[in-house]
Automatic annotation (TrEMBL), chains A, B:
PROSITE patterns tied to this protein: POLYPRENYL_SYNTHASE_1 (PS00723), POLYPRENYL_SYNTHASE_2 (PS00444)
Gene3D superfamilies xrefs: Farnesyl Diphosphate Synthase
Pfam families: polyprenyl_synt
GO biological process: isoprenoid biosynthetic process
One GO molecular-function entry: metal ion binding
The family this protein is said to belong to: Belongs to the FPP/GGPP synthase family.
Entry-linked InterPro entries: Isoprenoid_synthase_dom_sf, Polyprenyl_synt, Polyprenyl_synt_CS
Descriptive protein name: Polyprenyl synthase
Cofactor(s) required, per the database record: Mg(2+)
Length: 360, 360
């Protein structure tokens, strides 16, 4: 594994690709009086792109390494690096829109893009508008980067189509995520199913399925095989990743994630944890949880009480079990691949990054 | 010219392509409780796509007819129809975002997408979020349609890249359009230049330049030739189109456009007309115009007064001159093409649709 040097390369390449796309080009004739705002948006594109964990790009590189014949590996590694970065650029764009939708002030410890642009222009309306456009630009950039990378690959014809399918899936996922907020809290089994379903679209789609699929396509696998295999490994892995993420929000992590505990509860997010807690709670606790989530906000005491109930009802334990089962499903899919032992082990190691919670 | 039958085919095909992309597919596993919202978004995708003038798709078809060798014309017409519709789908997505940015209630006489979705969900926050996602989905759909069309073309390798460049240009244009709102009214020459520059990016890019470019690429021209030629004809034409559109907003049209006169003035848009009026006005009128535009809204009496000043200062006449000059530039570029007389005439006819104001 060379993930620390991978990480550096991904970071450098991603920022350079975003810069190339977002800043005005030499032959872009733009009126001088409008240039400062165009520059501010381009700068924000770079700022918003900095400092991700790059898990998706890392998985793309490792999937390519696991599946590619040696001669393809050497020939196409640089194009695959671009393709890996394209997912990161796509994610940044999706997060810019997500922060507008959720009206979030912060992202990765800095002002969210639309907030920063509102401050730059002294106008929330213009800042939000520029934020919507920045998200659009990054989405376009991501496809452009993938398209150019695909044209450099020996076998890249299906890559753009798969990349656009990833866009579509995440967009459906965002729609479903908003739909879940309209779900009733009276049917926790349905809520848990709906939340897991949102994870498939909103998270697994681009976090684990697409990186595996792109790595395999670049390695020369045909579209059908790449898709089936990416789903078999990536779907359970992506669900486990999101469950682990939601769990860390409640129980905290040994690594300091920089996020205060209970953020999802404070925001009233309808998570699988909440559904499991409502499902296992007695009548009194059930009503307590539902009334907390139906009110417009939750204070610190209520956040602490909700965490207590997540623990006492066994919802936290249930999430850990779910994660363990999903991770085992994912490993079984890897085990069944027709690959040398060493390559399988490398792939397991690469996938394990998404479920730190079962490793510790 | 077969533009009425073209129009029918474009309308039918566009709606069918949007339906195919936006509605959940047979193998899309979506939780039942979330399905109604996903369906509402997909229905809105179709509603928002209905009833455009389809000028851009018509120009794409006609440009292909003007430039393509006979055998290419017969072989690739159906794929070019898809490509033409892809621009319409792109436009619909851009308008959905535009209406959120401008907080517009109406589009083509119906509730704008985010408003309709707010009514569906009884929540402005969720409706706006779904609107942002719908715009994203249509943008993705447009590239997907173009990518699939390109793969059916005999010479389509540069199409996706040109299509993404169109996305980028319009996104820059939207950024510049917001930037113009921060321009000072004290320098009308600069404002006129900045407004015309916005037209190049926000309008000409996808209204006239891209359709000509796509038609030529599909016809087999190389990327450089297609780009240069599309700019020579399409840039002045696109500027003339937007100037004519702004002019019709003030002087009305013989055809009933269904829009009340003076909408741009009511909204306080910083147009070339306004810049020309401020530039030619005497000191008293100048201050009158600036103070009208600097206030947060304009009443009906002020709208009438602004139109009066646009007329008396000669700004309306100046816009007509600008349109005539630009249209003449565009025709000269067509005239200089190495094409049979009949094909040149057809192209002039096709381009003339964008400047109805100089034909009447």
């Amino acid at each position: 594994m060379t993930s620390s040097s991978d990480l550096e390369q991904i970071e450098t390449r991603t920022l350079s690709l975003v810069r190339d796309f977002s800043f005005l080009h030499a032959d872009d004739a733009v009126a001088n009086s409008c240039r400062p705002i165009a520059d501010a948006v381009a700068r924000q594109a770079v700022t918003s792109s900095e400092g991700g964990k790059r898990l998706r790009a890392l998985l793309t590189l490792d999937a390519f390494r696991a599946f590619a014949p040696r001669e393809v590996l050497e020939r196409d590694m640089d194009a695959v690096l671009d393709l890996a970065c394209a997912i990161e650029v796509f994610q940044t764009g999706a997060l810019v829109h997500d922060d507008i939708i959720d009206d979030s002030d912060l992202r990765r410890g800095k002002p969210s893009a639309h907030r920063a642009l509102s401050m730059d222009t002294h106008s929330d309306a213009i800042g939000n508008g520029l934020g919507i456009m920045l998200g659009d630009m990054l989405a376009t950039a991501s496809v452009d980067i993938a398209d150019k990378a695909a044209s450099r690959l020996g076998s890249g014809t299906a890559v753009v189509s798969a990349f656009l399918n990833m866009h579509r899936e995440v967009e459906i996922g965002q729609v479903l995520d908003l739909a879940v907020e309209l779900n009733s809290l009276d049917n926790p089994a349905e809520l848990a199913a709906a939340s897991l379903n949102v994870f498939r679209w909103k998270t697994a789609s681009y976090t684990t399925i697409a990186p595996l699929e792109f790595g395999m396509l670049a390695a020369g696998d045909d579209a059908g095989t790449a898709r089936d295999c990416a789903l078999a490994i990536g779907l359970p892995l992506g669900l486990a990743f999101q469950l682990a993420d939601d769990l860390l929000d409640v129980i905290g992590s040994s690594r300091n994630t920089g996020k205060p505990i209970g953020g999802d509860i404070r925001e009233g997010k309808r998570t699988v944890l909440l559904a499991d807690a409502i499902d296992a709670a007695d009548e009194k606790e059930r009503r307590e949880l539902i009334s907390m989530w139906e009110s417009s906000s939750r204070n610190e005491e209520q956040v602490a009480r909700a965490i207590e109930l997540f623990e006492s009802t066994g919802a936290i334990e249930r999430s850990k079990e779910r994660i363990t089962e999903l991770w085992s499903e994912s490993r079984k899919a890897i085990e069944s691949l027709n690959l040398p032992r060493q390559r399988k082990d490398m792939l397991v190691e690469a996938c394990a990054r998404f479920v730190p919670i079962v490793r510790g």
